[in-house]
Design brief:
By secondary structure, this protein is mainly α. The chain is built from 9 helices and no strands. The longest helix is centred in the middle third of the chain and has 38 residues, at 101-138.
Length: 264
């Protein structure tokens, strides 16, 4: 899928997670619901850091462009080192390592650890990166018409304000993980969810996605998982624009109402 649809799917997925959490007795404070949705929205763009033309590769100027080259090289090397006899040869790392559940878990766990042990500045850094990506994905028309500096300033301002809101007692920094020293441990969850939703979104396109690597499927280590071919579509097609995008709005909105206890 394209960047805006990925971002919308990430936000909708976290709203859905909020509704589920409320249903099992762990309702999210509204700041956790909102911040988590924005983080998941940004995280849903992150797996494409292995592609030089993706939104994320241009979001942070030379820094993200350099990171893109490094991640692509690491992904390509990992693919070559672990591919089986039936996996095709590749010239790049796009849709390999960063498009797996393993990568999503590592990134999310790493961010949770950074938030817990790195303190406020680590939290601000995580929020800043994902707020910038959320702006690039959800407000993509405005972002493309603006300079990177304006998007970065908006991301920095949003990160600071949201961190202040979350820090107020009862507003969500201790949601789900309530023991001393566990504040913001939940912050990796929307990152994992956003990355996984990205993979699912790519899996239903023509190319599929090796989300279950390194589990061998059909004698392939990097099996491009997806539905039957006739159910897949091309990224940017009418299915994505006219069907999935409105569905993400509806699902996300209904889930948000459920998460806040307004429905039922």
């Amino acid at each position: 899928m394209m960047g805006p649809a990925h971002s919308l799917s990430g936000a909708a997925a976290w709203m859905g997670a909020g509704a589920v959490a409320a249903g099992v007795g762990h309702p999210m404070p509204w700041p956790t619901l909102v911040v988590g949705a924005l983080i998941s929205s940004g995280a849903a763009l992150a797996p494409d850091l292995d592609h030089h033309a993706a939104t994320i590769s241009h979001s942070f100027g030379p820094l993200s462009k350099a990171a893109c080259k490094i991640i692509d090289a690491i992904a390509h090397a990992t693919y070559n080192a672990t591919r089986g006899r039936h996996d095709p040869r590749r010239t790049g790392g796009h849709r390999t390592l960063t498009h797996t559940a393993v990568w999503a878990a590592l990134i999310g766990t790493g961010c949770s650890a950074a938030a817990v042990y790195g303190g406020r500045w680590a939290v601000l850094a995580i929020l800043f990166v994902h707020m910038v990506l959320a702006v690039e994905g959800l407000l993509w028309r405005a972002a493309r018409a603006s300079s990177h500096v304006i998007v970065w300033l908006l991301g920095a301002f949003s990160a600071w304000v949201l961190a202040e809101v979350l820090d107020d007692p009862g507003n969500g920094k201790a949601w789900l993980f309530t023991q001393p020293g566990q504040h913001y441990m939940w912050i990796g969850l929307p990152i994992i969810l956003g990355a996984l939703v990205h993979c699912v979104g790519d899996a239903i396109t023509v190319s599929g996605c090796p989300i279950l690597w390194p589990i061998p499927i059909a004698r392939k280590r990097w099996y491009p998982l997806g539905p039957p071919k006739f159910m897949r579509f091309r990224a940017g097609s009418w299915v994505e624009l006219k069907v999935l995008t409105p569905a993400f709005f509806i699902i996300g909105g209904a889930s948000a109402l459920g998460a806040l206890g307004i429905l039922g």
